[in-house]
Specification:
- The protein has 268 residues and is an alpha+beta fold.
- The protein is built from eight helices and eight strands; from the N terminus they run ααααβααβββββββαα.
- The strands form two sheets. The chain has a four-stranded mixed β-sheet with strand order 2-1-8-7.
- The termini are far apart.
- The C terminus is likely disordered.
Length: 268
């Protein structure tokens, strides 16, 4: 009886060990499957991430940037009336070069001579606004090594140069047009694809506001067409006009002499 009990206990213990070993083997197999599934899922997600197109950047709202600055009402109006604002936004969506805009403040426009803007026709106003746009994205430090003159969106308009010159000293960047010079002192936006810098002066291009070349037309004649001079009568010491009266006088004197001689002969 005791032997049977011990045998049953031994069989039971062996069965428990076998069962435990089987459970360990199942757990190991399940762990391997889980790790294999995770590795496969990670590979699939990586491939999908590489093949998926990059999300397109959100469109740039130029008017919103200037409105946030709070002192660019006149520039916003000019960007709208000349349609340069729409041109900039459309070009930003189709260019990998980006753009840079110099934004004159309202005070900068107010400091212009009276009639400066009104004296420009629409084509000249468009050229003036385009002169404040560079067809490339420039960070502030990029102007320290730029090659002058820098082309603007107005370059080539009517055969003009419309270039800008930049100088930098002690982390200060100045821009010059040949007519005015001012400092880039307010960064409104510096994220690609558009950089916007506030300026305290309107950038007046020398092509529109520079000194005019002196006139090269020939000097006017002394004879005015409105009051033409009457031709002068040539003077001559000998000519038909003076000879004719002398000849007539000689003929008349000879005739009277013959009459006197004939009268004298008759009396004799």
């Amino acid at each position: 009886m005791l032997i049977r009990l011990l045998l049953s206990l031994w069989v039971s213990l062996n069965a428990d060990q076998l069962r435990w070993k089987h459970l360990q083997e199942m757990a190991a197999s399940l762990s391997s499957l889980v790790l294999l599934f995770l590795a496969f899922s990670s590979a699939v997600l990586s491939i999908n991430a590489q093949s998926a197109p990059a999300p397109s950047p959100s469109p740039v709202n130029l008017t919103g940037i200037l409105e946030k600055g709070g002192q660019y009402t006149t520039l916003i109006r000019l960007l709208g009336s000349t349609q340069v604002g729409s041109q900039i936004e459309n070009q930003l969506n189709n260019s990998n070069q980006g753009m840079t805009l110099f934004a004159p403040t309202d005070n900068a426009f107010n400091n212009l001579k009276p009639g400066t803007l009104n004296g420009l026709n629409m084509q000249q106003q468009v050229a003036l606004v385009l002169y404040h746009v560079i067809p490339k994205f420039y960070r502030l430090q990029d102007f320290e090594t730029v090659s002058n003159p820098v082309r603007t969106q107005a370059s080539g308009n009517g055969g003009g140069v419309y270039g800008l010159n930049f100088t930098s000293t002690q982390n200060q960047v100045n821009v010059s047009t040949g007519v005015v010079e001012t400092q880039l002192n307010n960064v409104l936006r510096s994220n690609f694809p558009l950089a916007v810098y506030g300026v305290d002066k309107v950038l007046l291009p020398s092509d529109l506001f520079g000194a005019k070349a002196p006139s090269t037309s020939p000097p006017a004649s002394n004879d005015s067409p409105s009051s033409p001079k009457s031709p002068s009568t040539p003077k001559s010491t000998e000519g038909p006009s003076t000879a004719q009266p002398n000849a007539g006088s000689k003929t008349t004197s000879l005739g009277w002499g013959l009459v006197v001689l004939m009268a004298g002969a008759a009396l004799l």
